[in-house]
Amino acid sequence: MPTETPPPYFPQTSLSPGDVKTARKMRLAFYGCGLLLLLALAGAILGVVYLVRSLT
Predict the structure, then answer these.
(1) What are 17-52's pLDDT values in tens digits?
(2) What distance in Å separates the CA atoms of residue 24 and residue 18, rounded to the nearest whole number?
(3) What span, in angstroms and rounded, lies between the C-alpha atoms of 36 and 45?
(4) Could you tell me the residue ranges of all domains in the chain?
(5) How crowded is the C-beta side of 6, counted as CA atoms within 13 Å?
(6) Bigger pLDDT: 9 vs 31
(7) Does residue 19 come out as left (phi exceeding 0), alpha (psi in the -120 to 50 range) or beta?
(8) What are the CB-based long-range contacts (under 8 Å, 24+) for 41-49?
(9) CA–CA gap between residue 11 and residue 29 (Å, rounded)
(10) Full-model pTM
(11) How far apart are the C-alpha atoms of 27 and 46, rounded to whole Å?
(12) Which residues have CB under 8 Å from 23's CB, separation 6+?
C-alpha cells in the first residue's frame, strides 16, 4: 500500500570536501592509489615477460 510521503532527501553537500585540507588529503589518496595500481600493472607485465623468457 503506497503512502503519500515523499522519498527521503539525500543532501549532496556531505560528498564534497569541506575545506582545502580535506581536499588535499583526498587528492593525495587518489594519486597514491593510482600510483600503486600502475606499479602493480608494471610488475605484472614484467612478471609475464620473465616467465615467457624462462620458458623459451
Answers:
(1) 578 888 899 999 999 999 999 999 999 999 999 999
(2) 11
(3) 14
(4) 19-56
(5) 3
(6) 31
(7) beta
(8) none
(9) 24
(10) 0.59
(11) 29
(12) 17
Altogether, the residues listed in the chain come to a count of 56
**Per-residue H/E/C for 41-54:** HHHHHHHHHHHHHH
Q: Cell numbers at residue 21, please?
A: 585540507
Position of cell 564534497? 16
DSSP string, 1-56: ---SPPPPP--STTTS-SSHHHHHHHHHHHHHHHHHHHHHHHHHHHHHHHHHHHH-
